[in-house]
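[SOLVED] Predicted holo structure with copper (II) ion

Edit: marking solved, answer below. Original request kept for reference. I posted the sequence and ligand SMILES and asked for the 3D complex as structure tokens.
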Amino acid sequence: MARAYSLVGGLSFALCVACGDDAGSSSGGGGSGGATSAATSSTSARSAKSTGAGGDDPGPEPCVLAEAEDLTGQAAVTITSEGINYEPRCVRVAAGTAVTFVSPFQMHPLRGGEVVDGQGVVDPASPITPQNSGTEATFTLDEVGDVPYFCSFHASIGMFGTIWVE
Ligand SMILES: [Cu+2]
């Protein structure tokens, strides 16, 4: 009996030491661990869903021109962020269109550039200049071409889109 107790005691002591080391090195303790696993599970739920839906889900797939929303008849276009999605996300606009992003930029910093392998790559030449604060920014897109954009916090989980300027 006494032996079993001391064995258990020794084991739990060893476990606790390991726990302490983990919590110390991740520097967020249980909180950051919980957040990470929540993000991971929502990511896998998302990719499973988007694989099944085949393109309907506004998940991490790149925009496809053929499926982009045609807003070329509008002189002004607004893209809002809904949670971690932009709406509309993939659009076609006419050259000269004023595109306004409405989004809490502090929580969803807007960047012009492409997402490659889940990583946002800022394009310094993009007409969409970095936005880190405020809730509204308007860009007049004069040059024909594609203008990809993303949220620097959530690009890896699908918060990005493309504006085709025609
Ligand atoms: Cu975001």
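OP edit: Residues 84, 108, 151, 153-154, 159 surround copper (II) ion (CB under 6 Å). Thanks to everyone who chimed in.
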